[in-house]
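Example record

Each entry pairs one chain with its bound ligand, fe (ii) ion.
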Amino acid sequence: MRGLIMNQLFNKTNIDFSTEPLFLGTGRNISRLDLNIEQHIQNQTKDALGLMWFATDFTYTEDAKDFESMDDKLKNLFLKNLKFQTLLDSIAGRTVAEVFIPITTNPQLESWWFQHGFMENNVHSETYAEIVKALPVNAKEIFDDIMINDHILSRAEAIVEKFEDTVIMNAKRLLKTDDYDLFEHKKSIALSLYALNALEAVLFKSSFITSFAFKENGIMNSTGDAVKKIQLDEIGHYAMTVNLINRLKSDPEWAAAFDAVKDEARELYKTAIEADYKWIDYLFEENVILLGIGADILKQYVDYNAKIVMTSVGQEPLVYETFNPCTWDKKYKKSSNVQTAMKEKNSANYLLGKINPDSPQEFWESLSKYLTGE
Ligand SMILES: [Fe+2]
Ligand SMILES: [Fe+2]
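Structure tokens for the complex follow.
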């Protein structure tokens, strides 16, 4: 067995990384970050590190007071939302580490994944833990509930399945099993990239806007500020999925793999959006009132975002006639004077600087709508 999987972590071949593919190349050895290759990936990593922040940058004492003064329905809404975000970030971090890093054979992309995974786990998940620990609730009970709450678990099911499939394909490749098929592997990676794209830019959306609505109503301000930071990170993660999908499609064999999973990918977005609708009904089942949002508004917001996101990766949207029912969300997509503002000053539209110029025209148009909320 050992002989079979030698070289997975450190391949002794003298590899020329300037000619290696992003995924499934010869292997990995030295982190060749000295090489000036994959410039747009390097830039994106630098930008993401420039936005670096930590869970402990915020204190939640005032939020704890706000929480105490809220009625039970609002408390439930706040907690349901936070629980879902916790689950999603747990999946996101692990996906980067266990689905994509093991098959990434470009050092610059590997470096991106490490910072991406770090943010999901050590900053975003850590932030949710800090918030819940600061509230006058039993934090353990809150976190325990995530794993027994079907509303939360079922919402990410379709996405997780795609990631698990790629983990299996990665293992087959590593163990050189007889039934391993390179094209099937590429198809699976294509689906996992779509799944990551949906996770970063569709699934998080209704939760984020709910967190911001609390802040718009003058309560849970620090949580709103922290979630804004998280959203800015997620926009960068979303941008990288778009870059990778469009970039891989320029290679004929990858293009064929993406084409072969086109319908399955569309189904994935559809399932994700339907799960979002169900989730929204669950969020508002108690007829909770929070000015600025409600079940219908959130569903329109989901459609609006999904159209932009699907267009950006060359998928035909499920709904064409959409509008942004929460145009006030604009200020949460731009860095501002919250906390560590200095290093973000030049990054108001920082996503624009991160996108590979080879991205198709539809992406530029959809991105501009995504950022301006129009
Ligand atoms: Fe995250
Ligand atoms: Fe993310």
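Confidence is low (pLDDT under 50) at residues 337-354.
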